[in-house]
Amino acid sequence: MLNRVAVLSDVHGVLPALEAVLAEPDISTADRIVLTGDITAGPQPTQVLDLLTGLGDRVVWISGNADRELLEYRRGQRDTIPDPIAPWAAEQLRDDHLELLGSLPRSLSLSVHGLGKVLFCHATPRDDEEVVLVDSRLDRWKEVFDGLDADIRTVVCGHTHMPFVRLAHGRLVVNPGSIGMPYGRTGAHWALLGPGVELRTTSFDIAAAVTRISQESSYPEVAEWADYFLHARATDTDALEAFAPRDGRDHAP
């Protein structure tokens, strides 16, 4: 049984944001750091992976759809990736990075004090790019929970880059938000579990981070990329409008 677990999701290869979060005292004292996917697809993929692997066994890794897509691209299993930065990021990865990404599970469970058995995944327990939102209807949550063990009372997911906590069919659902590509408000968003749930935001010097990323990354449009995502220029309204059709609500009775 773990007392405290820090959840970091959707780092998307943004090293300054990750470094800021890892410097938090509650991160350094947490029993585990769980990464709920989309770790690499961004402007500093190798630096992020090297920093995280250097933390050793305290880090628990889960694959996200973007991590899978980078691996498939490098293996020749796909010719394109929808995210413009992803093919570039895929080409930066070393063989040891590819081996690591290929070994990651889609989900796993840990016992956390006060929360019991917690399932960690990227998007939903059954799919790494399925969309559920804070306002998804209960029938939708019933669908994505189908087949889960009854003793799993908390589900932690990422993917949509917007933090929330809600109840659905008696299960607590937690989305920590995004470390590197926040929607709606700036900062690096993460969560601390045990015995309850705390949504956290780590502030850092965004202008300095944009400058640093622009200097250290060779991605051709890196300055524009960093300015847009680190300043959270996509609002939560923009993101919800884009994601909402994908949670099945358009087909609801």
Would you kindly provide a written description of the structure presented here, covering whatever features stand out?
The chain is of the alpha/beta class and 253 residues long. The protein has a single domain (5-251), classed as Metallo-dependent phosphatases (Purple Acid Phosphatase, chain A, domain 2), CATH 3.60.21. The protein has ten helices and ten strands. It has helices at 15-22, 25-28, 45-53, 65-74, 86-92, 95-102, 138-145, 206-216, 222-230, 236-243; strands at 5-8, 32-36, 59-62, 107-112, 116-121, 152-156, 164-168, 171-175, 188-193, 197-202. The strands form two sheets. A five-stranded mixed beta sheet has the order 3-2-1-9-10. A hairpin with a 3-residue loop joins strand 4 and strand 5 (116-121). Helix 4 packs across helix 5 and helix 8 (206-216) packs antiparallel against helix 9 (222-230). Residues 4-191 form the Calcineurin-like phosphoesterase domain. It comes from Streptosporangium carneum. It holds the Pfam family Metallophos_2.
What is the CA-atom radius of gyration, in angstroms? Answer: 17 Å
Major β-sheet profile: 5 strands, mixed
Helical coverage, percent range: 25-40%
CATH homology superfamily: Metallo-dependent phosphatases
> Could you tell me the strand content as a percent range?
15-25%
Protein name: Phosphoesterase
Organism: Streptosporangium carneum
GO molecular function: phosphatase activity
Pfam family, one: Metallophos_2
